[in-house]
Amino acid sequence: MEYEGIVIRPPSEAESLILQVTLGCSHNKCTFCPTYKGRRFRIKDFERIKEEIDEMAEYGPFRKVFLADGDALIIPQPKLIAILDYLNQKIAGLRRVGIYGNAKSILRKSVEELKELRDRKLGIIYLGVETGDPALLEKVCKGATYEQMVEAGRRVKEAGITLSVTVLLGLAGVQGGRQHAKATAKVLSDIDPDFASALTVMVVPGTPLYEEMKAGRFQLPSPFEMLEELGTIVASSTFSRCYFTSNHASNYLPIKARLPKDKEAVVGLIRKVTSSKDQSLLRPEFLRGL
Fold first, then answer.
1. Mean pLDDT of the region 99-109
2. Nearest to residue 32, comparing CAs of 137, 177, 163?
3. Which of 285, 286, 252, 258 shows the shortest CA–CA distance to 270?
4. Can you name the CATH fold of 11-280?
5. Euclidean distance between the first and final Cα of the chain, in Å?
6. What residue segments make up the domains of the chain, in order of their start?
7. Which of 81, 122, 176, 231 has the most other CB atoms within 10 Å of its CB?
8. pTM
């Protein structure tokens, strides 16, 4: 199989077959994201996709397949159905297909269309929410409003597809951190996803956010200030049943919790670490990554 450029996949897809069906991201405007910059988004030719599926079928079986790149859900419905049908035909042992989607690509599909994808083993959609603060969503050029984020998340759940969302600690800088955290807890509660992950912002040269920081318009919160945001998000969120993590490589304090059951213990741990200001309790900078 031939991959072009950087291929990004969620940590939970580590053991999946990665099938690159698009190149780049259909949105590609988020101010904090360094991925796919300078690359034009395109959908790969279906015949080429079929050839790659045929190639990998010889190495199966594969239980899980992840469709890359950044927003493969934007693929028009007939072509996406054709890809899933061919995967189901060729990949022995296939149980689940995963995909990145943004609010725009999800809302382009009706609940019935999402159910068509579910029936072809599309089992999980990963949605980057980042924040629930409406002004911050606009500032970082996320391309969706609060209401659109909530509607997109609920549409995925209504279709019976597992929903995994990510939020981004530190995105509002020092001054807006508490508002960002409270609003993010609200959007998570309104969406009520099956999985939620908090990542920590890393300011990368070449991004608009980096230029803001250089110009003094953005101040990166300290590790403990970011953990205070995390504590606020966990304490203020209301979930029916959610597996919540902050174990991404960017995070300072790895956490895995089942909410609401583990809420009290998690909030207590975060408060203990933030009040101690003990750097030894945090993941060292040299071990952090995107």
1. 97
2. 137
3. 252
4. TIM Barrel (3.20.20)
5. 24
6. 11-280
7. 122
8. 0.96
